[in-house]
Amino acid sequence: MNKLLFVVATIALIPVAQSDTIKASVNGMVCAFCAQGIEKNLQATGKTKDIFVSLKQKVVAAELKEGEKISHDDFKALVKDSGYTVTKIETVKLSANEIRAATKP
Amino acid sequence: MLRIHLFAAIFATAFSSLCAAAPMAYFTGGVMTMVETSSGEREAGANYALSPRDALGFRVAWMESRRPVSEHSHGAALFSGKPKHETVEFTYTRLIQRWNTEEAQVNIWTLGGLGLARGNTFSGERFAYSPGLQFDVETTRVYFSLKGQMHRARGVNNDMGVMRAGFSFWESEYDATQPWFIIEAKRTREFSEKIEITPMLRFINKQFFAEIGIDQDKKVKAGLMVVFSRM
């Protein structure tokens, strides 16, 4: 019984692998077509699991598939090629959905 | 025959599930489709984004002048009535320059087409061309644009100037419908003697863009754009 409890407790304490999410503040993103363009260009990399775009917050968050990487420079270049400008970028341990939920009033 | 093709193209563009709306998709491989109708004008078009900055497509347009004309040569009447023209063109749209700020986007576009025109003021088909330039400024709440475009063929000059300005009633997220109030002022040579003023409501939701308005002659003007993607 004690062994079983130990195994259960050990499994519970193993950190759940969480995907990286690149979160960027983007200038010039003012319309739905702009947001759609950035979303589709990021999706085209095949490395994203979920993408969140907020026109109000001027934020783009791309949650990466497990094991996939996009460097900050590549992300900035991708957004620039789409016609917009990244002003701030970071990698966070939150899902795109969590960022989405956090921006809702 | 050209008219049959014209209406077929409008129908196909409006209802084909393979197409979408414009001036272009902002991602490579995106397809933009649009239809627009107003008193004396019908237009449909589609383009394919070669990159997020340029697109290749086609445009079909029908125009009937609001102003009757009479043309004479040596006392003999050559034409009398309202000029009508139909045009089919291959088009190219390119973003020349964009400036981004935290709150706004400023763009300069070039657009144009090469094709054929047919009309009741001449016989046969004539080479048509339509180079143009557009400047626009947009925030999430305010919109302003100026467009000048030539629409020419031998004996035809439907050059137009369009100014659009407006505001959105509220700021919206990408997946919500955003309503706008837009006023359009448009002048088309050999089409109308006055500047057409049309207050319009515009609705944008994700890849859908719809406008409807009524001009000063109480004629309805409406447009729809949809952007499609394979992803």
Descriptive key words:
heterodimer, A: alpha+beta, 40% helix, B: 231 residues, two-stranded antiparallel sheet, 1 helix, globular
Explain the overall architecture:
- The complex is a heterodimer of chains A (105) and B (231).
- With 105 residues, chain A is an alpha+beta fold.
- Chain A is built from four helices and four strands, in the order H-E-H-E-E-H-E-H.
- Chain A has a four-stranded antiparallel β-sheet with strand order 2-3-1-4, sandwiched between helices.
- Chain B is mainly beta.
- Chain B is 6% helix and 63% strand.
- Chain B has one helix and 17 strands.
- In chain B, the strands form two sheets. In chain B, strands 1-2-3-6-7-9-10-13-14-15-16-17 form a twelve-stranded antiparallel barrel.
- In chain B, a hairpin with a 7-residue loop joins strand 14 (178-188) and strand 15.
- The longest helix of chain B has 14 residues, at 2-15.
- The radius of gyration of chain B is 18 Å and the shape is globular.
- The chains are: A alpha+beta (105), B mainly beta (231).
- At the A-B interface, helix 2 of A face strand 6 of B.
